[in-house]
């Protein structure tokens, strides 16, 4: 029985070889092409731009190749500075993102690996057109991950951002990792993934924030930085929030965990506060009989620590701490009022207020959800902002001009020295 099966397999193989041998030339894709793993080119970043004049889409990919000789013991160099690595930008133009990305696979002789894409960057014009439409092909791709982080650009194209990285020793993906962590720590922006936009974008009258990148001359070694946020309504870019106030947009969106706050004390000395606790919620003035919302109260609580003050004065006294607390509260309130006012001017409820009302007051939401952008635009808002300074990181003895005299008094049994 086994001998018969082996003879049958041999006859089948001979037949297939004879048929293929009769074809001239033999298609090279009939059998798998063996390539070494070292020949793989990893795609780390996709960039998508839209040209309104031609109605075409440009897709740019950043390829990263690595020589296995740069590895030792199976470890991979992730510093982003290895001279054993090479990088290359491949770019094509087509009628759609799907068509254009397909060109990249066909037109290059490289063996591309798409499963390691970490970032999607969309140009300003693509974001203005329709972000959900532009990312549709990436969302449907079963090789790409839904956890890819998304950026848009400001005053430049995605292709320019990717090509700019070629002149640097750093890899763009490593740079984005670094500035992403820095932005989250400083409160400048928070990460948003492809999956987040897919969930937010399908909602009626959806609004959300996407971190924006720009190219700044003179910012070495790479001229790329976070410019703040792009504001989206109905999946279209409608404006930007500058990085100087974007941390307060993060607070309004309920995504802020900590940030640094800079200001001056009552004598004009610079202070740096580490805001390490943030709680934001809404209180809605709802008239049940009229099924009407008369206004909302934005309630925000902050706690911070003083981490730097350029002053020789005593700062551990209750009076000084209370003064700092008031300065902090006034500053936070003014920024929140400005940022909330801007959101209302845009009619862009990225704050999550609409979602809160939909859950808390479903009868009202069912009657007014189609008109929510206009209602949000004209909604009266009051602000309840309080802040606490928990620690000044001072020792129990005062720091400043009185410190030396205090030590002398204790050492002399309470007698003052002349």
Q: What key phrases describe this protein's structure?
A:
35% helix; alpha/beta; 418 residues; 13 helices; four-stranded mixed sheet; single chain
Description:
The chain is α/β, with parallel strands linked by helices. Helices cover 35% and strands 30% of the residues. It contains 13 helices and 13 strands. The chain has helices at residues 2-22, 97-107, 124-134, 136-140, 158-164, 172-186, 194-201, 246-252, 318-346, 353-360, 362-368, 372-377, 401-411; strands at residues 40-51, 56-66, 85-94, 111-113, 119-122, 149-153, 207-215, 224-233, 236-242, 259-264, 270-287, 292-309, 381-391. The strands form two sheets. Strands 1, 2, 3, 4, 5, 6, 7, 8 and 9 form a nine-stranded mixed sheet that branches. Strands 10-11-12-13 form a four-stranded mixed sheet. A hairpin with an 8-residue loop joins strand 7 (207-215) and strand 8 (224-233). Helix 8 packs across helix 9 and helix 10 (353-360) crosses helix 11. The longest helix has 29 residues, at 318-346. The protein is flat. The protein starts with a helix and ends in a 7-residue tail after the last helix. The model is unreliable at 23-38 and 67-84 (pLDDT under 50).
Short description:
The protein has 418 residues and is of the alpha/beta class. It is 35% helix and 30% strand.
């Amino acid at each position: 029985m086994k001998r018969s099966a082996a003879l049958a397999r041999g006859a089948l193989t001979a037949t297939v070889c004879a048929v293929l041998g009769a074809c001239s030339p033999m298609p090279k894709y009939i059998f798998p092409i063996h390539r070494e793993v070292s020949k793989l080119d990893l795609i780390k970043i996709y960039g998508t731009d839209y040209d309104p004049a031609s109605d075409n889409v440009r897709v740019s990919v950043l390829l990263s190749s690595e020589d296995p000789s740069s590895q030792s013991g199976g470890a991979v160099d992730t510093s982003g500075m290895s001279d054993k690595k090479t990088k290359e930008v491949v770019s094509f133009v087509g009628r759609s993102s799907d068509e254009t990305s397909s060109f990249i696979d066909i037109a290059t002789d490289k063996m591309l690996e798409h499963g390691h894409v970490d970032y999607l960057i969309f140009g300003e014009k693509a974001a203005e057109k329709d972000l959900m439409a532009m990312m549709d092909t990436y969302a449907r791709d079963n090789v790409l991950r839904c956890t890819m982080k998304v950026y848009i650009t400001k005053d430049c194209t995605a292709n320019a951002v990717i090509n700019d990285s070629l002149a640097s020793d750093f890899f763009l993906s490593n740079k984005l990792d670094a500035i992403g962590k820095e932005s989250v720590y400083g409160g400048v922006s928070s990460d948003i993934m492809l999956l987040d936009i897919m969930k937010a974008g399908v909602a009626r009258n959806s609004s959300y924030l996407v971190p924006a990148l720009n190219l700044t001359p003179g910012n070495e070694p790479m001229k790329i930085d976070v410019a703040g946020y792009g504001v989206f309504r109905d999946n279209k870019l409608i404006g930007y929030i500058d990085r100087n106030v974007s941390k307060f947009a993060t607070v309004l969106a309920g995504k802020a965990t900590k940030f640094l706050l800079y200001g001056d004390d009552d004598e004009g000395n610079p202070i740096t506060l580490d805001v390490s606790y943030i709680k934001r919620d809404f209180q809605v003035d709802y008239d049940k009989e009229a099924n009407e919302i008369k206004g909302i109260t934005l309630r925000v609580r902050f706690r911070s620590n003083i981490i730097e003050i350029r002053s020789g004065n005593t700062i551990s006294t209750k009076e000084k701490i209370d003064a700092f607390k008031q300065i902090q509260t006034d500053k936070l309130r003014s920024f929140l009022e400005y940022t909330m006012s801007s959101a209302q001017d845009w009619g862009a409820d990225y704050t999550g207020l609409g979602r809160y009302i939909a859950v808390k007051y479903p009868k009202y939401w069912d009657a007014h959800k189609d008109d929510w952008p206009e209602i949000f635009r004209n909604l009266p808002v009051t602000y309840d902002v309080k802040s606490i300074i928990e620690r000044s990181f001072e020792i129990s003895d005062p720091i400043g001009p009185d410190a030396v005299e205090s030590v002398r008094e204790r050492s002399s049994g309470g007698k003052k020295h002349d």
